[in-house]
Amino acid sequence: MSLYDIKPWFVRRLRRVEDLLVARRVSPDALTLAAVAVSVAAGIAIAIGGWLDSPALWLAVPPLVLVRLALNALDGSVARRTHTARPFGAALNELGDRVSDAATIGATAFVARPALALGALASCFLASSAGVLSHAIVGRRDSGGPMGKADRAAILAVGATAGAAAGSALPFTVVLWTIVAGGVATAAARFARINRTLDGRRPRRELLTEDVVLVPNATQIDEESLHAICR
Q1: What is the CA radius of gyration of the chain?
Q2: Contact at 8 Å (CB) between 143 and 187?
Q3: Fewest CB within 10 A of the end CB: N or C in the chain?
Q4: What value does the mean pLDDT take over residues 207-217?
Q5: Inter-residue contact 156 to 104 (CB < 8 Å)
Q6: 141 and 131 in contact (C-beta within 8 Å)?
């Protein structure tokens, strides 16, 4: 189960915004870049809140994360509505997602152990790489959870809210360990799905032993056997 499963519902809730963007001819690439900018802003809020010991700044993270997820959903739907979807747009979207993850999760190095923040970032990159490999090998981008892009963003927002309420950075540590474990589990699940798909496509030839006829080598057939065969 992942937040990605409710994406169709989320996109329907944004239909009026989507209509407005289509009417204004807003480029899907502009929405992708806007999502990156919003993520950088969320990362700055996390970092400055920790650096200045001002947990209240972390309250800016949840609304920024929600805007980021909305923009991530809208860039694809607008591209489909305007028939402007193209491979470069997909590549830009993937790059934007990685930069956004780096900006938000990387910023937690200011409020938690840097090594843990780096580990969390590495685990989410591993999970994302598995998803991209699925598209390259199987032909379908795997966005399944349990710790996909939306899940990482949501749990980070929860951690920021809890940290601001408690006046402590401890919730970020819990969030980072959750992302590490969830990222590894997500990568493993995606690689397993790739393997199952490839196994299903591989032709299987099963021979029954009674259908196999052993023919002796020509050098093993003596003259008497040849006479017997010719009779």
Answers
A1: 27
A2: no
A3: C
A4: 47
A5: yes
A6: yes
